[in-house]
């Protein structure tokens, strides 16, 4: 989640209104999907297992017994048994890989995350039932942090990011009536810095809030509009970011008090599953909206800071 310096407002607004990849991003996405298919970023042994799994698919029809049959319509009886045995071994390897290898590496992590998610859900519901009307501002932020933690766990499960080194969910809220500034209010990882206030128009979140629709940055490090700089780090450790504006209806108008961001250290982590992911975490996002329903500073969707200032005058 990020603040950027020297953003071109026109280009940033055009990016926020668009919902498609550039030609360059499309090529990079294909490469990313190919690497993800092979599991090349998981571990060397896991990647080699994926490669061998793919090679067996091509090896079976390429065996000499089939080549001879294609050309002569005859099979050498002396080699038939041996090559049938080889085919059997390849098929057993495919079955064993599909049945055991991925699940054995991830099953323990999945169970751990699911248990953490269930426990967090239970705690959040208990807090809402017992204290929703008496929450202090500090307690409210702590509860929001718990919800963000649930969103992080749910996102990891959907994206299968069980062992990601960097994964963060944060909440940014507008910090003044004209929405000129935006503040990092809460994070899933409460050890990370919060409370920093920056110029709204120098953040990607601001342009997403103006549009009022979820958007994702596929590769921040190589983005033509947004330099690789963050609020907490001069060189951001994340590569892809999902932005979810917290849109609320008030008096017949759609307003946005802030933006929820999800950061990942992998490129294109959110592009193909963005719609599915946002749908799955929407109940948790709804809890955040409920807790922020009285937040005083909101940006009206489609209205710039200048227009909102003119109205105030």
Summarize the structure in words.
The structure is a single chain. With 313 residues, the protein is of the alpha+beta class. 53% of the residues lie in helices and 14% in strands. It has nine helices and nine strands. The strands form two sheets. Strands 3-2-1-8-5-4 form a six-stranded antiparallel β-sheet. Strands 6-7-9 form a three-stranded antiparallel β-sheet, with no helix packed on it. A hairpin with a 6-residue loop joins strand 1 (167-174) and strand 2 (181-187). Helix 3 packs antiparallel against helix 5. 28% of the residues are buried. Mean pLDDT is 77; it is low at 308-313.
Strand content: 5-15%
Give the % helix: 40-55%
Structural class: alpha+beta
Strands of the biggest beta sheet: in what spatial order? 3-2-1-8-5-4
Low-pLDDT segments, ≥5 res: 308-313
Mean pLDDT: 77
Largest sheet: 6 strands, antiparallel
The helix count comes to 9
Distance between the termini: 32 Å
Instruction: Give me the strand/helix succession.
Output: HHHHHHEEEHEEEEEHEH
From the spread of the alpha carbons, the general shape counts as elongated
The tally of beta strands, per DSSP, is 9
Evaluate the radius of gyration.
25 Å
